[in-house]
Design a protein that fits this description.
By secondary structure, the protein is an alpha/beta fold. The chain has two domains: about 140 residues, Aspartate Aminotransferase, domain 1, CATH 3.90.1150; about 240 residues, 3-Layer(aba) Sandwich (Aspartate Aminotransferase, domain 2). It is about 40% helix and about 15% strand. The chain contains 13 helices and twelve strands. A seven-stranded mixed beta sheet has the order 2-8-7-6-5-3-4, with helices on both faces. The chain has a three-stranded antiparallel beta sheet with strand order 9-10-12. Strand 3, helix 4 and strand 4 form a beta-alpha-beta unit. Helix 1 packs antiparallel against helix 8 and helix 9 packs across helix 12. The longest helix has about 35 residues. The protein is globular. The structure holds pyridoxal-5'-phosphate. The site of pyridoxal-5'-phosphate has 15 residues, from helix 3. Pyridoxal-5'-phosphate binds next to helix 3.
């Protein structure tokens, strides 16, 4: 059976070129970058090279890039670090209802420690309202954290506009760009971004490595305390091999950005068109260039998402209902609820995310396999039978 992987938003494989650059750092180039002999100088240089590749992709200085143990750590550091270092100025944070749990649960944690959090609404397509954002900022607001692109429904926020509002009001702006990187152009200068999170394993790099961009002069406390690594801001012996892999993955993502997104958009739109031919099916999230190139998310009314995933798995297709972090729990996706879907519809949602290795043939297979699955599940489900 031919396997079809359509869950690239959950994670990607590591590209061959990335793995090749990483390999020597597990064996002969194992020196601790903080030590003072030749094999350590080698690893120190490799870290610098990775840092400058990331800096180039974001249009910032190398000295503004800090490596972390992934996207979740970068989000935690940005939010807790800003909260802790700026609490004299205020205790108010603004975010949205559709953030990744790495942001949402961090904000909920801070609420237990005296911070106040505004969770902005989003419209039917998942966009924040810029007027609502402006009106939510008070003289107690110390941070706005709004994701660049949503991992479930693909909404790309008007980040430049959000950045200018925050800059005008003198509020620090963090964005989780884990899904955006490699798919959308990012420029932290042009977009007035103060902090930005990214992760390796969503862009064909290794898992467990990421980075936080921190604009020079931003007041932020450390999250991980200990040794003096990362200019004394993030302790712990550097994960050299993974950092090298992250640097290479970022470089490749920048080189391929236009070709990659064009390829994905073509497959995405074909997949969406085909899926919407199935009766009682709706697209979640926006269409066109305000949607992530590789993201498809649909709701099949009168069907449970979990049973679709299971049936697709039997047919060799890897897909996701909502986000990978919520599957396994019975809660409907917070993102789908925030865009106004009723609980029952949110439970009947399916996310298919495309990547570099996706082909037209993959799309054809899904469009052949899925309609009879939906029909069969609906045949067995009572709300659908009652409707007939
Ligand atoms: C995957 C993801 C994260 C978490 O990154 P990890 O490296 O898995 O910790 C955070 N935000 C978004 C939008 C993501 O898609």
């Amino acid at each position: 059976m031919r396997k079809v992987y359509m869950d690239y938003a959950a994670t990607t494989y590591v590209k061959k070129e990335v793995l090749e650059e990483m390999m020597p750092y597990f064996t002969e180039k194992f020196g601790n970058p903080s030590s003072f002999y030749s094999i350590s100088r080698e690893t120190k240089i490799a870290l610098d090279e990775a840092r400058s590749r990331v800096a180039k992709a974001l249009n910032c200085l190398s000295s503004e890039v800090y490596f972390t143990g992934g996207g979740s750590e970068a989000d935690n550091w940005a939010i807790k670090g800003i909260a802790s270092a700026n609490k004299e100025k205020g205790n108010h944070i603004i975010t949205t209802k559709i953030e990744h749990h790495a942001v949402l649960h961090t904000c909920e944690f801070l609420e237990k420690h005296g911070f106040e959090v505004t969770y902005l609404n989003v419209d039917k397509e998942g966009f924040v309202n810029l007027e609502e954002l402006k009106n939510s900022i008070t003289d107690k607001t110390i941070l706005v954290s709004i994701m660049f692109a949503n991992n479930e429904i693909g909404t790309i926020q008007p980040i430049k506009e959000i950045g200018s509002i925050c800059r005008e009001k003198g509020v620090i702006f963090h964005t989780d760009a884990v899904q955006a990187l490699g798919n959308v152009k990012i420029d932290v200068q042009d977009m007035n971004i103060d902090l930005l999170s990214l992760a390796g394993h969503k862009i064909y790099g290794p898992k467990g490595v990421g980075a936080l961009y921190i604009r020079k002069g931003i007041k932020i406390d450390n999250l991980i305390h200990g040794g003096g690594q990362e200019r004394a801001r993030r302790a712990g012996t550097e994960n050299t091999a993974s950092i090298v892999g992250l640097g290479k993955a970022v470089e490749l993502a920048m080189e391929n950005l236009e070709e990659h997104s064009k390829h994905l958009v073509k497959l995405r739109d074909k997949l969406i068109d085909g899926l919407l031919k199935i009766p009682n099916t709706k697209l979640n999230g926006p269409i066109g260039d305000r949607r992530l190139p590789g993201n498809v998310n649909v709701v099949f009314e009168y069907v449970k998402g979990d049973s679709i995933i299971l049936n697709l798995d039997f047919a060799g297709i890897c897909a996701s209902s909502g986000s990978a972090c919520t599957s396994g729990s019975l809660n409907p996706s917070h993102v789908l609820l925030a865009i106004g879907l009723p609980k029952a519809s949110a439970e009947g949602s399916l996310r298919l995310t495309l990547g570099d290795d996706s082909t037209e043939e993959d799309v054809d297979i899904v469009l052949e396999v899925l309609p009879p699955i939906i029909e069969r599940i609906r045949g067995a489900s009572s709300p659908w039978r009652e409707k007939l």
